[in-house]
Design goal:
The complex is a heterodimer. By secondary structure, chain A is α/β, with parallel strands linked by helices. Chain A is built from eleven helices and twelve strands. Chain A has a six-stranded mixed β-sheet, sandwiched between helices. Chain A starts with a strand and ends with a helix. Chain B is 73% helix and 0% strand. By secondary structure, chain B is mainly α. Chain B has a single domain, classed as ABC transporter involved in vitamin B12 uptake, BtuC. The chains are: A alpha/beta, B mainly alpha. Chains A and B meet through α2, β6, α4 and α5 of A and α9 of B.
Chain lengths: 280, 360
């Protein structure tokens, strides 16, 4: 049971090839990190799988047989859930109602008891039960992001897509969101895809990563296998050094190390530095 | 292909919030609103009807509905003058407030009203053309006048939607096109006014105040029929409207809502409601912009309850405004379009200061 993306091509307006020949496989229970600089096509890929953006070429399939593109929108929404980066609100809704939006594909004008059960379960899982009667506009950034994730979980999806959910959060909520995404993938055997900027967090939380560059896939695999300073230089245009910590690969900015050590020494020993300079 | 996201927790009997009872407050609020509207309507019918008591009013309406007869003179006054007037205020207020709620939700903008797409200036232009052709001698219920306003208003909506369709009816595009057409039709109307004499000018200006003075039974029938068809559809789309208003276009699409189609259908419905109403009444302001806000501050943002409650608030506002307008300088009648803002604005200010949380 996998999400299979093959030869995907997407373009709109003047940009003919936002994505071209993109291939991707995500199994149930797996969290895949989508990496790449701004404009590399991460969001477009996620929105295309979610049925928000139309593809030009290629196939999107679940389980080898279900053509996601041919599904009615409502049926697709029962299978695939999408968590946007953030949302601007013009009007306020209480948290429970905001999560109930996730049941939109399931009920007509009146939510059933089963709809409420899913809402309550999602609130519980994200630690929002206490905040259920609060208004969404009163929440902090991290809490509001959790409401969006809860909404996606109330959708009861098989495929969960998260579009840079951590970008606006402080480090605690970044980690919380990532471990939650992984937990949901594992516990509910959901195929999860997350677009993310932080290479170290991707290496730490994602099972596999996919590097997008200019709308094509440059590399894919386990972080520890695919991360290399050449690849990262090619994708992001920065020089890095890699290290291993407890089996996880880590990325550091490259520097002229000897020079820095000299500078550090100079800072640590101001007296000696003074002595040196005062000597004739 | 459905899986259970974390097994739903067992039903806890100590929890009172199950099924329909979750919305007890909202349902009660709507019911109270409905009762208040009926009461306000009855009072409004009685006010100004010389010598009639409250009981006479109820008795006469009952007699008419059951065809058992009653005082003939009283019946004529009530049935031919008061009832159409009050019913038009109720239906018109409901239509404008519902249209306002739809526009505000669809375009995710609290500053939007039913007139944002330029419907009102277009109707004023159509009405002006009619008045000038007919020499300005007709009263505001003249059929040609209604037709002129209606055609111009619908034409304006068609132009906006046709132009915006190239941008998938994007919210900002719609608002900007509305601004352009508002300016255009205002200029056209001003141009006509420049070349007319004082009498015609006065007729045009009087029309733009908005009133139910010219209420006729055919208008009530048309609006009632329209609401009977439009409202069930609007209520049916309340879930989709929630998704568009609160999740954004992309979010709503990912929740299974065909955003462009729903937006097109709901704009057409709201625009037709607005166009028909103001072609009968002239441009009644305020209720379509602030009515939805008053409703939202009281009942919350969920459109399943906000839509019916907006309709009731809109109806109440116009019925009360019309009653006050008839009492204030009796026997002169101040147009409802002037009074509704004078009554509504303080209520709105009070709600904004005390319950602002419902707005962002």
């Amino acid at each position: 049971m996998t999400l299979t993306v093959e030869d995907l091509g997407v373009g709109y307006g003047k940009r003919a090839d936002v994505l071209s020949d993109v291939g991707l496989e995500v199994a149930r229970g797996e969290l895949i990190g989508l990496l790449g600089p701004n404009g590399s096509g991460k969001s477009t890929l996620i929105k295309t799988i979610a049925g928000i953006t139309r593809k030009k070429r290629g196939t999107l399939r679940w389980d080898g047989t279900i053509d996601l593109d041919a599904l009615p929108r409502r049926e697709l929404a029962k299978l695939v859930a999408y968590v946007p980066q953030s949302i601007q609100l013009s009007y306020s809704l209480d948290v429970r109602e905001a999560v109930l939006l996730g049941r939109t594909p399931y009920f007509g004008t009146r939510p059933s008891d089963e709809d409420w059960r899913h809402v309550d379960a999602a609130l519980e899982l994200l630690g929002l039960a206490e905040l259920a009667d609060r208004r969404v506009t009163e929440l902090s950034g991290g809490q509001a992001q959790r409401v969006l994730i809860a909404r996606a979980l109330a959708q009861d999806p098989t495929v969960l897509l998260l579009d840079e959910p951590t970008s606006a959060l402080d480090i605690r909520y970044q980690w919380q969101t990532l471990s939650l995404a992984r937990k949901v993938a594992r516990d509910n055997s959901v195929a999860a895809v997350i677009a993310i900027h932080d290479l170290n967090q991707a290496a730490r939380f994602c099972d596999r990563v996919v590097f997008l560059h200019g709308g094509t896939v440059l590399a894919a695999g386990r972080p520890v296998d695919v991360y290399s300073s050449e690849l990262i230089a090619q994708v992001y245009g920065v020089d890095v050094e890699l290290s291993l910590y407890k089996g996880f690969v880590e990325v550091h900015p490259a520097s002229d190390a000897d020079e820095e050590i000299d500078e550090l020494d100079a800072l640590r020993r101001p007296e000696s530095a003074l002595e040196t300079s005062s000597r004739p | 292909m459905t899986t259970t996201i974390s097994p739903p927790p067992a039903v806890d009997p100590s929890r009172p919030r199950r099924g329909g009872r979750r919305y007890a407050v909202q349902v009660t609020t709507v019911a109270v609103g409905a009762v208040l509207t009926v009461l306000a309507a009855l009072v409004s019918i009685q006010v100004g009807t010389s010598g009639a008591t409250f009981g006479d009013v109820v008795g006469t309406i009952w007699g008419r509905l059951t065809l058992t007869g009653g005082d003939e003179q009283l019946q004529t006054i009530i049935w031919e003058l008061r009832v159409p007037r009050v019913t038009l205020a109720i239906l018109g207020g409901a239509a404008l407030a519902v249209a306002g709620t739809i526009f505000q939700g669809l375009l995710r903008n609290p500053l939007v009203s039913p007139y944002t797409l330029g419907i009102a200036p277009a109707a004023a232009f159509g009405a002006s053309v009619s008045i000038i052709i007919l020499g300005g001698s007709t009263s505001s219920n003249g059929f040609t006048l209604v037709l002129g306003a209606l055609i111009a208003a619908l034409l304006n909506t068609a132009i906006v939607l046709a132009l915006a369709s190239s941008k998938q009816l994007d919210a900002t595009t719609l608002i900007l096109l509305g601004i352009a057409l508002t300016q255009l039709f205002n200029a056209l109307t001003a141009g006509l006014q420049y070349f007319t004499d004082d009498e015609v000018l006065a007729a045009i200006v009087r029309w733009t105040w908005g009133s139910v003075n010219g209420a006729a039974w055919y208008q009530v029938a048309v609006l009632l029929l329209l609401m009977a068809f439009a409202y069930p559809y609007i209520q049916y789309r309340s879930g989709a409207l929630n998704a568009i208003a609160f999740a954004g276009d992309d979010g709503a699409r990912s929740l299974g809502v065909p955003v462009t189609r729903v937006r097109l259908h709901l704009i057409v419905v709201a625009a037709v409601l607005t166009a028909v109403t103001i072609s009968f009444t002239g441009i009644i302001g305020f209720v379509g912009l602030v009515g939805p806000h008053i409703a939202r501050l009281i009942i919350g943002g969920n459109h399943r309850f906000l839509l019916p409650f907006s309709a009731l608030i809109g109806a109440l506002l116009l019925v009360v405004a019309d009653t006050v307008g008839r009492l204030l300088l009796s026997p002169a009648v101040i147009p409802v379009g002037i009074i509704d803002a004078i009554i509504g604005a303080p209520i709105f200010i009070y709600l904004v200061l005390t319950r602002r949380k419902a707005l962002a």
